[in-house]
Fold:
Amino acid sequence: MKSLCIDLFKNCSATSLAGTRSSRVLTYRFQRTNYQTHLPSTKLTFSSYSTKTCFATLSTVTSEVEEKQTFNPDKAGELVKELRNSFNSGRTKSYEWRMSQLENIAKMLEEKEKEITEALYKDLSKPEVEAFISEIVTAKSSCNEALKELRQWMIPQKVNTSITTFPSSAEIVSEPLGVVLVISTWNFPFLLSLDPVIGAISAGNAVVLKPSEIAPATSSILAKLVEEYLDNSAVKVVEGAVPETTALLEQKWDKILYTGSARIGRIVMAAAAKHLTPVILELGGKSPAVVHSDVDLQVAVRRIIAGKWALNNGQACIGVDYIITTKDFAPKLIEALKIELEKFFGKDPMNSKDISRIVSSTQFKRLAKLLDEDKVSDKIVLGGQMDENQLKIAPTILLDIPEESQLMQEEIFGPLMPIVTVEKIEDSFDVINSRPKPLAVYVFTNNEQLKKGFVENISSGGMLINDTVLHVSISGLPFGGVGESGMGSYHGKFSFDGFSHKKAVLYRSFSGDSSLRYPPYTPEKQRLLKAVISGDIFSIILALIGWSK
Structure:
């Protein structure tokens, strides 16, 4: 497994993999000293060892001391063993333990809101209001729902039985899976770390969280707060990068939830396959917004901006990746976008305090390369300004770029917005269906037939009519992808179910034991048995008196 993970990871940069530094949960922690660089040098500190400097890469560790200090597969194995012992003790299964941990999370969110917001600003320059709404409030909502509904979720679900098992009763029991791993990502580094952990705890599991090293300030605050507020015998944080992730993936888990790219999702799934570990993969893809000419244009445009540039500056898996509209309507749509973008971010959006920066220089260069591609840069109709020193790219709109360009082939994950035009809006069906299934599809129209057509004919993780991204705020709706955009789902009760095993239980007494099921199988028994299985009362009566139809 070690060779498998190293081979799979060796061509991956740490930007691709949501990793973390080791946590003190085991008395060691990587602490980043530079929030701007992609993979800055790290300081590895121990409570009982001298300090050594190292780099969070896959480089060979030459020092014997450093080798001993690395979070390697052996240390990862010890961590899992410790958590498994805690789980096997039964402590995490009780309603009382689950509630106590959820209450502590709620307390943490109230008491440490300022520290969390500051960490998000350090990592992404995320505006305070955006951080509060998209990360803290959403996490609070998830926690509060679990606190309110947990007792009901834990009640076994009664199931009807059949005449073949009479007298009997049956139920579905939700039992915790065991020890689970959550590998988070950097774009919403707090919410997408804590939300799955809330689900795992609600279901009664022991859990390891690995936040992304690409959002180091948030990773550090998560490690600190989990150690301070939660039961460290059952809930731990491991910080680090690719080596730590590799070490964790070599272990046997009872479930893995990964949020990130499809490329790394394949690596996670390959590692899980060795142990037949089930996975929830929250990936991404190119999520389109289809805009018909019959819309309230100002409202539609404002909601598209909210689902793109006001959402971590386009760095969101559910963000609008590109727009589809008709050739005739495109000029009006572009003009409306220009007007509303100026209202939102001013004449010079590069100086706006209401828009996030690009997370790292590596991501910045990737986006700049997409924009500089041949036959792409000359399609810009708005924006295009870039400042690498500040890691800022202005909201940028492009019209009818080549289909074969990288901008139209890969998930953009940034502030670049291509507009694809079609002759008639129904042609958008073919445009979307020609690509891998997206995580979300957004449709803006007042045409009821068009709405129905999208729901029935477009496959996607989720769909929202006349708005963007808000479907993820509905706890009664599952959040997850399909095909290339992921597998499995969570949010609300779906999080509880995702980290639970649904155990089928049938109860019978020693009464009502029929000789029908036992040899010898006489003709009379066969007639009666067939009648009972068919459920035909008349046939049963005939069989009992020795007659047949």
